[in-house]
């Protein structure tokens, strides 16, 4: 939990798998400062390398960097990067979403060539409209047309 979306995403990775991290707004910049810039969602390898060329490897260093230097290097996205590093990003978290799919997975305990066992498991899945099957070295997708 954190005051903004990007900080909350960073916080969610801090105490995996079951930990919950709360970042108080008063300590947000202090908490983010020592973290590598790669912790910011959306900073990939190329952006990280470009930042390193500017002498920036931590979020704190990014926060202290001149916005003009960042803008000259990254254009409009510099505003977003700088705001996240300073804890000033204000993207609202959207709570409503439309579910597009529901998934379930089953893995056999041991590799098997027992087609009766495989068939039994597939029959149990026949309620699904779309099924993805991975068998050792090949995969296939099945879609029922009966709906």
Brief digest:
With 147 residues, the chain is mainly alpha-helical. It has helices at 5-12, 28-32, 45-53, 59-64, 67-74, 77-85, 115-123; strands at residues 130-135, 138-143.
Strand and helix layout:
Blueprint (H helix, E strand, L loop, with lengths): L4 H8 L15 H5 L12 H9 L5 H6 L2 H8 L2 H9 L29 H9 L6 E6 L2 E6 L4
Antiparallel strand pairs: 1-2
Helix pairs in contact: 5-6
CATH class of the largest domain: Mainly Alpha
The residue ranges in which pLDDT falls below 50 over 5 or more consecutive positions are: none
Q: On the 0-100 scale, what is the average pLDDT?
A: 80
Oligomer: single chain
CATH architect. name of the largest domain: Orthogonal Bundle
Identify the CATH homologous superfamily of the largest domain: 5' to 3' exonuclease, C-terminal subdomain
Question: Which structural class do the helices and strands define?
Answer: mainly alpha
The fold-level CATH name of the largest domain is: DNA polymerase, domain 1
Instruction: Give the SSE string.
Output: HHHHHHHEE
Beta-strand content: 5-15%
Total DSSP E strands: 2
Strand order of the largest sheet: 1-2
> Rounded to an integer, what's the Rg over CA atoms?
23 Å
**Tally of separate helices:** 7
Q: What would the principal axes of the Cα set say about the shape?
A: elongated
Task: Write structural notes for this entry.
Helix 5 crosses helix 6 (77-85). It contains 7 helices and 2 strands. Helix content is 37%, strand content 8%. The model has no long low-confidence stretch (mean pLDDT 80). Strand 1 (130-135) and strand 2 (138-143) form a beta hairpin. The chain has 2 domains: 5-85, 5' to 3' exonuclease, C-terminal subdomain (DNA polymerase, domain 1, Orthogonal Bundle), CATH 1.10.150.20; 102-147, no CATH class. The protein has a two-stranded antiparallel ribbon. It is mainly alpha-helical.
